[in-house]
Amino acid sequence: MPAETEWPQPIDGAVTPRFAAPATFMRLPLRPDAAGLDIAILGIPWDGGTTNRPGARHGPRELRNASTLIRRVHPVSLVAPTALCRIADLGDAAVNPVDLHATLALVEARVAELRAGGAWTLAAGGDHLISLPVLRGIVRAAPGLAPLGMVHFDAHSDTNDSYFGGSRYTHGTPFRRAVEEGLLDPRRIVQIGIRGSLYDAADMHWAAQAGIRILTIEEAEAMGPDAVAAEARRVVGGAPAYLTFDIDSLDPAFAPGTGTPEPGGFTPRETMRILRGLRGLQIVGADLVEVAPPFDPAGVTALAGATMMFEILCLMAEARSRRDR
Asked: Structurally, how many domains does the chain consist of?
């Protein structure tokens, strides 16, 4: 067990080459539990909510591999997350690849355990349905946080009601369920980069009528990254919020390894600039999802995902440090 005074640090790439040693997220120590930690990075290798192209179950492993390229200090803010918070890799949550509801329960329990132990969670999926049990776990351990706000990067709203004649739990439905369950406040949700063809002209009506702020890619492009970040800050406000980043918010030219690619998306530079504009928000939990390595043998999608995870980790570390002070 780590002592309360221990500050886990990543392996130094200037001492041990980045291609050496077992791969962990950001080369951080691997820990079995949250004792003494502020932020736990958790893999969720599951894609049982996928409606078309599977493969995101392999995301956490490749994100770990790609994250060995990440150094410890942010190049613009000069934030070093491990200097602000105790952070470690908690391995992968238990999952059941043939039982959707069993997996939702397992992930919820693991996140609740980590939160009850004092650690905020940065999760790596997995398909986008994993956001639902992560949110459930956070609120189960800290009910006073509900309903949370949310910053949501995605090509898709993920607020459909059901698929295939009544299946209500897929990667296209998590945030409708989360709003219905009181985990999220729809008036404090902003969805950034929404694009692509629809099943029906009414697909977005429920989200809009619930009060969710939908920033299509066309509106985001017209506004520019700084204005998008400002709008996200306005919508979410100063109360606790969740951040979820679907890798398909990026254009497939930069992230081909995903289950539902949509041309016309963000460049990595644009999303990084938006994320950096969110400094100061109370991001108390987050995830990065839908990296599907089988569709990208070159690994550029996993590298983009690991880079966005580092940006998010910096936001969370600053938020946690502020709260603790």
From this structure: 1
